[in-house]
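Entry:
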Amino acid sequence: MEYGNLTNVIYAEESGTSILDVTLTADPGFEVVLDSFDLAGWRGDYTINSVQVLSGGTSVFSQSNVFISGTTRTSFNTSNLGSLAASTLTIRFDAANLGSDSDNIGLDNIQFSQRSTTPPPVRTSEPSALVAISAVAGIATFLKRARKDR
């Protein structure tokens, strides 16, 4: 299929299915970070109702009347998305205004990662290091007292 310059796209399978959702879910103890994704039109340019990224049911990115190229790709990345991270993120595009051509919008190149939400462990001294420090402190105290006694 020819969706701009993209290959192996995902699209709403049935004509007239106007909204496509792709949900990214992080593993427990992590959050998903969305870096970028691309949209393109099949053999033509289109303007769709909207592109959104949702965290839960809340919109964290939204753009209306989005032009989608049929010869290249329309990219969404950190320069226009900002920093998006949550336990679950959903990419949603609404092409209801295209009617039976709503399956002519393809999604590809979703780039995302995970990052830990657990704070790093607090470093503690090794028990052997504490013993060594205590020994040095004890010797210093002993020597200080010995000098006083002279």
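Residues 47 and 138 are 78 Å apart (CA to CA).
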